[in-house]
Design brief:
The structure holds two protein chains of two kinds. Chain A is mainly α. Chain A has six helices and no strands. Chain A has one domain. The radius of gyration of chain A is 17 Å and the shape is elongated. The longest helix of chain B is centred in the N-terminal third of the chain and has 27 residues. The chains are: A mainly alpha, B mainly alpha.
Chain lengths: ~150, ~110
């Protein structure tokens, strides 16, 4: 029962992270030129820098909780997935695992280039690091759902 | 200003070293420790299963983070004349390349069985 509660909290944190990083990525790659009142324009017009610390904290919290749940996954769902020889979903989850770990590598640089915008090469580095983190968060969110929904495993 | 420059150097070098060590750690199993999930026990280094599944992932991340932090920490104290030549692009190029390598390894391992 407590594993399900942890999984739900992990999912809620992931949703918050997904929203924050997507907002920031859209504001970076599709900025508004002039203020307007539509929902999409407002979505694009968020002040990106204000999201940085929240994204780093949410990434670490989501990952820490995911790591705790992962210990249970290895003795429950993963054994069944191996026995059923569901190698492609298994491989997709392994990619999620590696992406989450590699995301840790970029967090200090991501924070630095957003907080020090006049650093050499900051503009392109900021955009690319945001893109990498956005890709990781979306991949891990979607694959987490697929694995969770796979034959009712949770 | 010096602290900011030093953190910038640390962050870029960390982003370069961590992914390289991580991919190496997964390939030759350089886990700092092993977690035996069925037993809830930790053992030092990469060890084989005592009973049930073993998890090296925590150990791989620890190895990578410690190695990267040490190298990046040393780099942060190098003279500015050396570190200012460090391209900012390396902070995303190396992790991006490591992600591609990780995907390739996983596809090779699990998608052609």
């Amino acid at each position: 029962m407590e594993w399900i509660a942890l999984l739900i909290v992990h999912g809620l944190l992931a949703v918050a992270l997904l929203g924050a990083i997507t907002h920031q990525a859209v504001a970076v790659f599709w900025p508004v030129k002039a203020h307007a009142g539509t929902f999409v324009t407002k979505f694009r017009a968020v002040p990106s820098t204000s999201y940085v610390t929240a994204i780093v904290v949410l990434y670490l919290l989501t990952m820490a909780l995911g790591a705790v749940i992962y210990t249970h996954y290895t003795i429950s769902s993963r054994i069944a997935i191996i026995q059923l020889q569901l190698w492609k979903p298994y491989g997709l989850f392994e990619i999620k695992e590696h992406f989450a770990a590699l995301g840790l590598a970029v967090l200090p640089a991501y924070w630095y280039f957003w907080r020090v915008p006049n650093a050499p090469g900051a503009t392109s580095a900021r955009g690319m690091l945001t893109a990498i983190l956005t890709f990781i968060v979306w991949w891990n969110f979607l694959i987490g759902h697929i694995i969770n929904n796979l034959r009712g495993f949770a | 200003m010096t602290a900011t420059r030093q953190f910038g150097t640390f962050a870029i070098v960390f982003a370069i070293v961590y992914p390289i060590v991580y991919i190496a750690a997964t390939e030759v199993n350089l886990a700092a420790f092993t977690y035996h999930s069925a037993l809830g026990q930790f053992t030092a280094g990469p060890t084989k299963s005592i009973n049930g599944p073993v998890m090296y992932w925590f150990g791989w991340m620890t190895t990578s983070a410690v190695a990267a932090a040490v190298v990046a920490g040393i780099a942060a104290y190098l003279p500015a004349s050396l570190t200012q030549k460090l391209p900012a692009a390396m902070a995303w190029l190396v992790p991006g390349a490591a992600m591609v390598v990780a995907v390739g390894l996983m596809i090779n391992m699990y998608f052609f069985r």
